[in-house]
Each structure stands twice: as structure tokens, then as C-alpha cells.
């Protein structure tokens, strides 16, 4: 591991807005109260990377709490540091494996989930790692409030098609969908937030897919 990564790992451990591994289990069922000191809705960004979506959503919605989740501390460092430097109080980051979500969040605790440009895990042998696969969807359904919403942005057409297939297999309700976000009428202040990876994909003239759905049956 390079010196810069080691420095970021050491620094992120000192950030008041970063909770790591088992420490997050103490917040289960009381994230809004214990981390943010309020009763506002809690929104997650899964596989948040550098945390651009988490931070910018927090800027747009000061009356909601946002938690970016990723396992790579050197990536979380960027979003957490930005939030601290800009005094954005409704942002936190949790460094865990997403597979352990149920150990850190209680039933019906989450209002919304964003999945932005995750690893599509294209190999058939890695289907279980896909963040919109059946086992992950089952976890999200537990932590999500009944009226909660799911959002996916991805440049990977195969992963997008796979996600739509899973939504249809479970007969879930879709609210918005497009295979070319920036040439659709869906773009707003929220969907126009761009991550580091999204900017790279757009520079390569890739289309951006988006779908919004809930766990309500059609």
C-alpha cells in the first residue's frame, strides 16, 4: 500500500464523521439520533467511493441525513474530508462490507438508498456480488421503510438489464427508468450530480442508465 493511502487510512480514523467496522453496530436503530442528533430521514449511498453523491445530496437536502458506505477507507477519506471542511453536518461515512448491512441498521430505519456506479461484477461466477442481486435486495427490503425508494445509476448496460430483471422477478414497482439519462426528461438537480467515475464514463461518450423503484408490489 502506497504512502498516500496509508496517510489517508490514518487520517480517516480521526474524522468525527467516519464510523468504522464493528463500531457501527452500536448505532443500529438510532443513526439519526446518535450520529446526527435529530430525527430526520436517513439516506444511504452504497459503494459510495469518494462520496461525491453523498456529500452533494446532503448539500441539497439539509433536512435529511446521509450516510455513504464503502469498505475502502482511502476513498471515503475524500468525501468525509470535504464534509468536514465545508461544515456539512448531515453527512457521515460508514466503512463496512455491504454484506453486513443488517448488523448495522435496524428494520425500517432507512428512507432511501442510492447505488451509484457500483462494480457490475459481470462474470456469471460473481453474480452473488452484484449489489442488486436477490440477497442484497432482501437486505435492503428489511432496513427500508415501507415507502422507501431505491435508486440505481450505472454506465453498464448489462448490469442495468440484470437489475431490471430482478425488479421484474420480484414484481416490484418502478417509478422512473431510462437507458440514456442525459438525453431524457428525468434530469434534475439530484440526478445531475456526477461522481468521479461518471465523469470518466461521460467523457468516453457512454450512456447513463437510471432506475427508481420501491419494494411495493405492482
Percent helix, as a range, is 25-40%
Low-confidence stretches: none
Helix count from the secondary structure assignment = 8
Structural class: alpha/beta
Order of helical and strand elements: HEHEHEHEHEHEHEHE
Overall pLDDT level = 95
Sketch the major β-sheet: 8 strands, mixed
Let me know the number of strands. 8
Rg over C-alpha atoms, rounded to the nearest angstrom: 17 Å
Task: Tell me the fraction of residues in β-strands, as a range.
Answer: 15-25%
Please list the strands of the largest sheet in the order they lie side by side: 1-4-3-2-5-6-8-7
The CA-CA distance between the termini, in Å, is: 48 Å
Shape: globular
Walkthrough of the structure:
- The protein has helices at about 5-10, 30-35, 50-60, 75-85, 100-105, 135-145, 155-170, 195-205; strands at about 20, 40-45, 65-70, 90-95, 110-115, 145-155, 170-180, 210-215.
- It is α/β, with parallel strands linked by helices.
- Strands 1-4-3-2-5-6-8-7 form an eight-stranded mixed β-sheet, sandwiched between helices.
- It is globular.
Topology (elements, then pairings):
Layout: H1 3-12, E1 18-20, H2 31-36, E2 42-46, H3 52-60, E3 65-70, H4 73-85, E4 91-95, H5 101-104, E5 110-116, H6 134-143, E6 144-154, H7 157-169, E7 172-178, H8 196-203, E8 209-217
Parallel strand pairs: 1-4, 2-3, 2-5, 3-4, 5-6
Antiparallel strand pairs: 6-8, 7-8
Helix pairs in contact: 1-4
Give a summary of the structure in a few sentences.
The chain has 8 helices and 8 strands. By secondary structure, the protein is of the alpha/beta class.
